[in-house]
Amino acid sequence: MKRLSLAVGLFAAVACSGLSAQTVDLQASIPFDFRMGETLMPAGEYQIHNSANGVLAVRQRDGAHAAAVLLTLPASRKGAATTGALEFNRYGDAYFLSKIWTPDSRDGRALFKTKREKELASNAGSIYSASISLGK
C-alpha cells in the first residue's frame, strides 16, 4: 500500500510540474540598442519567450539578427498591471535589460547584472530606468 501511495504521489508531482512550466510569448518594439547579458541587441522588433522555469529568450522578429537566452531570478511588484513590460537600466546612453513583467500578474523575472553594468553603475551619478510595453 505504501508503494502505491508513493507511486501515485510521484505521478501527481510529475503531472503538476508541467503546469507551472508554461511559456509566455510576447512582442516588443524597442527603439534603442540595449544589452541583454553580454549580448548587444540593436533597436528593433523582438519576440520574447518568458518561461516559468526562469529561462528568458529574446530574439529579433526577422530571426536573422540578434538573439540571447539567459537564466533569470523571480521578481514581484506591488500590483498586477494589465500589460507586461520590459524594464531597462540606463547609464548615459547604454541600456541594459533588467526585468520583464508578465501581463495581468504581480510576477516577473529579473536579470543578473553583468560586470560591465556593475562598472557603469558604480561610475554613474544616477541610474535611470526606461520601460517598454509588451504586446501579445
Architecture blueprint of SSEs:
Layout: H1 2-20, E1 23-30, E2 34-36, E3 39-41, E4 44-51, E5 55-60, E6 67-71, E7 73-81, E8 85-91, E9 94-101, E10 105-110, H2 115-123, E11 128-133
Antiparallel strand pairs: 1-4, 2-3, 4-5, 5-6, 7-10, 8-9, 8-11, 9-10
Pick out its properties.
single chain; 136 residues; 2 helices; four-stranded antiparallel sheet; disordered N terminus; alpha+beta; five-stranded antiparallel sheet
Overall description:
- The protein has about 140 residues and is an alpha+beta fold.
- The protein has one domain (about 20-135).
- Helices cover about 20% and strands about 50% of the residues.
- It has 2 helices and 11 strands; from the N terminus they run αββββββββββαβ.
- It has helices spanning about 1-20, 115-125, and strands at about 25-30, 35, 40, 45-50, 55-60, 65-70, 75-80, 85-90, 95-100, 105-110, 130-135.
- The strands form 3 sheets. It has a 5-stranded antiparallel β-sheet. It has a 4-stranded antiparallel β-sheet with strand order 1-4-5-6, with no helix packed on it.
- A hairpin with a 6-residue loop joins β5 (about 55-60) and β6 (about 65-70).
- The radius of gyration is 18 Å and the shape is globular.
- About 20% of the residues are buried.
- Mean pLDDT is about 80; it is low at about 1-20.
